[in-house]
Amino acid sequence: MSSIPTKRLFMTMNIHPDVAYRELSAQAEFLKQRNLALAQTLAEITAERDQLQAELKALTATNEHEAPDDVTQ
Asked: What start-end ranges are recorded for coiled-coil regions in this protein (predicted)?
């Protein structure tokens, strides 16, 4: 039987601080742009939802006024 080592060896990498900063800055900018796009999409969908809710409320009110009070048949 072969034994499996219990310790894992991890290779450490030395990254120059300027390179790390540039990479993190690029990632931060990407996330910022993505968040802005998601916020815009959320605002558009929320406005559409609000419009549909207003239309539904108006149609419901119209149907309640048009329906007879005595609905038993």
From this structure: 21-62
* Assigned domain for 12 exists: no
Q: What would the pLDDT profile of 24-40 be if each residue is shown by its tens digit?
A: 999 999 999 999 999 99
Range of the domain at 46: 17-64
Q: How many domains does the chain have?
A: 1
Please report whether residue 5 resides in a domain: no
CA distances from 4 to 1, 10, 31 (A): 10, 16, 41
Residues 41, 43, 45, 49: what is their CA dihedral angle, to the nearest 10 degrees?
Answer: 180
The 3 state secondary structure assigned to 1-67 is CCCCCCCCCCCCCCCCHHHHHHHHHHHHHHHHHHHHHHHHHHHHHHHHHHHHHHHHHHHHHHHHHHC
